[in-house]
Amino acid sequence: MALHKLLVDDFYDDTYKLIAIHCGLEDYRLAYLLNQSLELNLKRKSKDLDFEYLTSSYSIFEWNNVSQFVTWNLVSNVCKKEEESLYSTGLFQTNEKVLKTFNLVPEYKRVDYFIKISDEIQNVNEKLILDKLQNIPQIVTSYSVNPIQLKSKDHLIF
């Protein structure tokens, strides 16, 4: 009798495009500008992405375009959290507040936001989207990222 081996990785084949955005805007302002320039309808989800048992949370906006079978997500890559830490100098200990920074995708620490485009029919023109993003004056730069090469690509499954 022959043995058959199934690999779990074969079952998950989510094809999506990933665009990195560098800008200093708040998440709601960037979502508004993307809605205007790309003719989207991004809305904030009721729950943020939480990782490592509430250590960090990332804002996420979503729009499901049913007519074109495309789901758009705008997700923050940076979470800044203020934590208390003990600081000791000799005999005395004091509590200080320290600002810690967490990243959704640690390989791209300088990226502020990611746009994830999940399209079933592969009809989204990525070059056209990048051109429109470059025309937004508040965005410093944007570029395409290959999600297959990411070590932390599991963080982008939502």
TrEMBL record:
It comes from the Bacteria. It comes from Winogradskyella ouciana. This is IPExxxVDY family protein.
